Amino acid sequence: MQSNVIASNRPIPPRVMAVMRRMSRSRWATLAMLLFGLLGLSACGSRPGPVAAKSAVAKNTPSPSNVAAASGSSAARSSGSSSSGILLYAVVESHTKTNGLATYDTVAIAGLDGYARAKTTFTPATPPYVGCLGPLLPLEAHVAAGRVFYVDGKGIVRSLGLDKTVKQAAAFPIGPQQEVSFAVSPDGRHLLGTVLTIPPKPATDPCTSQGNGFAPGNWSEDVYAADAGGASRLISHRSWPAGQQADVLSFVGWDAIGPLGTSPTGYGTQGGGPIREGWYGRVVRVDVEARAGNSPPPTRGTWFRCFPRTFAMLKPSVR
Amino acid sequence: MIVGKDGSSTPIGNPQPNGPSDFYAGGWLDAQTVIGWHNSGSTYNEMTIVRLSAPSKLVDLGFQGTFVGVVQSG
User: Fold this and answer.
1) pTM of this prediction?
2) Which of A120, A226, A232, B69 could lock onto A143 through a cystine, CB 3.0 to 4.6 A?
3) Chain B closest CA to A244's CA: distance in Å?
């Protein structure tokens, strides 16, 4: 099943909520439903609309006595506090709106007191035009090897460490109408990235029942691999016409077994929310070591083979 | 809510009976601490932690953001 349009009654991540609020003010939502119905796509199950979800939350706002502010915190601001031996986590923050959407522009490593031990800013992503939908952007940060890796709006992957150093890890360059996903191996030494190219916005009203919402042009998907600090190399490429659907791959993580992605991956929403931000599709494992004629795929799970000019999804057996 | 392997469930925060939680989980910081966000009044996405020892108490971290992952265990 294609999942380009995402809807469920699960909790909605903050940025998806922002997309929904934006879409609720747009006539695109209704038109998008018609459009994707024509394309044979489906939105799954009932879903709370943006207003309904917002209202439900507002009615259950905790009382002040129920919410204790962390000592001394007012933001994930920098602190000279020691970071040795304490629990620290990475967050991304948004102080920017691009094309009307909140986009992440800051990454920080913070403690339970809300203070950042390391923090840096980066160029936010520019949400692409995705037809009559609100765009869903891939995850922009991952933790590996004691550092937080993040990708900026140009496709440059860097990492921030507790020592406040910033290192460039890889480059998966993107431009207008492109978005990037990436994953980092647990040891921080290897990276994978996808660059999705989306057809342009048409000059005329894109949200009528005519056409597919895009100007003439192809989608394309490029998969790259890189060693940290090294050049990226293309390991897979494919393209398809604007009116045709394909199972888009997006990287979401990398565990002890290997890289994780989602496919098909939703790239836009007309409302409703996925379970987890950035995980906009069925979770799959990605086999980057496979080569034609050898290295048979694992016997469990959904695996992609990534090698030049070929991209195949094997039979799914897990969600 | 927090669901145990034994089938137990403990509400987080103080949701209304049969109502949705006011806390949205983003991940686990450790075996005893969940991080996520809550909405208060007109403010969305306040990063918040909840300790299993006091699941009704939401600890506001004082900023808005999205959890990425644990960088260093305590």
Assistant:
1) 0.77
2) B69
3) 34
